[in-house]
Prior knowledge:
alpha/beta; Rossmann fold; seven-stranded parallel sheet; 18 helices; 21 strands; 21% strand; globular; binds glutamine
Amino acid sequence: MQQQTKYIFVTGGVMSGLGKGVTSSSIAKLLQIHNKRVSCVKIDPYLNYDAGTMNPVAHGEVFVTEDGGECDMDIGNYERFLNQNVTKSHNITTAQVYSQVIEAERRGEYLGACVQIIPHVTDAIKGRIRKIGQEENLEILVVECGGTVGDIESLPFLEALRQIRLEDGAENVMFVHVTLAPSLDVVGEQKTKPTQHSVQELRRIGIQPDMLMVRCTRPLEDSVREKISHFSNITARDVFSCHDVESILAVPKVIYDQGIVTEIFRKLSMEAPQEGGANWKEWDLIVDSFRKNGEEVKIAMVGKYVKLPDSYVSVNQALKHAGAKLGKNVKIDWIDAEELNGNVDSLSSYDGIIVPGGFGERGTEGMIKTANFARERNIPYLGICFGFQLAAVAFGRYVCGLEGANSSEIDPSTQNPIIDLLPEQKDVKNKGGSLRLGSHEVNIVENTMASKLYKSSKISRRHRHRYEFNQKYLEMFALKGLVFTGHSDGKKRMEALEIPSHKFYLGIQFHPEFSSRPGYPEECFEAFVRASSS
Ligand code: GLN
């Protein structure tokens, strides 16, 4: 018989941005290290159906799963920490739950009942969580509830989690609450009041947390831990210090050293972990590789959403993965493409240049000039999705002399649409969930830089685009020295471009960053960082 899945519910207090995602990933990682079958779920209580239509500057990157989900960026943290793919069902939103309930009501499935938040909406939430545990045969599922306790939007979710604890029993369900102990200046004392209040708020809705993860700049002082313990009705050994560390990958060890694994096993009535039974070796090696401070490699990332580095979190991480493996210290400067336009010369001090994904017109002239500058100055260039498309536009304009060359996304009336709408997108009206999404196979042309770095004639990578290279220009580009070295769907679309005479000039239509993991950098990034440091 299938084992019942146990749940760890992670809630957040005080304010957003405390690192609930990293805390949840770290807990899951520790359980994985202790040989448990574990995964993570993110609940997003907002009314968007998914993250696909959200501005990355406000919410961070849109992370794409293999099955084409446009998810919250925390899903990326789970995949990277656990080195394990998750499906889009792991990102639950209010819109998904309510749509499900409303559709069932329209089909008449509630048999005349008055449809209500309790029990119908909460049942739908519980059903979604339990289905993941069962279908994936998990021993433990870590479920992170987005937002801050006290928000109106998260109430139905917290109520559903409370019910699961009641139904499945305290030996199968525990609550972890992430809070903050701020200190007002460097030597100032760590304040406990925000934590006290947020635990009270949680208790008011019927949830007594079993553990507190307290974010702080310096390790939590013992007296502060005691105080929090008293006021929150939680033993001091269940109050964990989540102080700042040099890298998010160091967080699992920080909480492990405070005894979190023993406590979780005890609370969830699992047999205590055997001495030496944990599998630390691989993770330790990976974390260590990030500590070495090798030669600095300066990368310019020229994009539109630079005000929040989290807009490109997977690209940032992928570069770090590559740096760690190669023993290089990758330093990234995020540069606003809009401000750069006309002054690309300032990019000459960088070892490598990236133009990442993006949408819409703003900043594109700066990105096109950047792609051209990297080509002219023989500076390693990696163009991802939009960066691939705009590199092709730049080549059309500056090498082939094509008047007004552009992407029809930017200039719908351009006489030279180097990048044009995917044919199957012509009648698409809805913006949400309608891009070409998720994993698709890409064929790699032999004897090219792409084939050298992928060492394979076929790869599978995640996509998120509506436009593509217009093959009308294929021959002209080849004659001028730019070749397409990756394609898909029986050569219907171009997926990679290179300039063989250049030091490293690679554009890819797919998103390699979503496949990069600590210890296992995606091939493009490794090759790009290597080229940038040579
Ligand atoms: N805006 C471009 C497209 O839709 C590129 C998308 C992206 O960079 N993710 O095709």
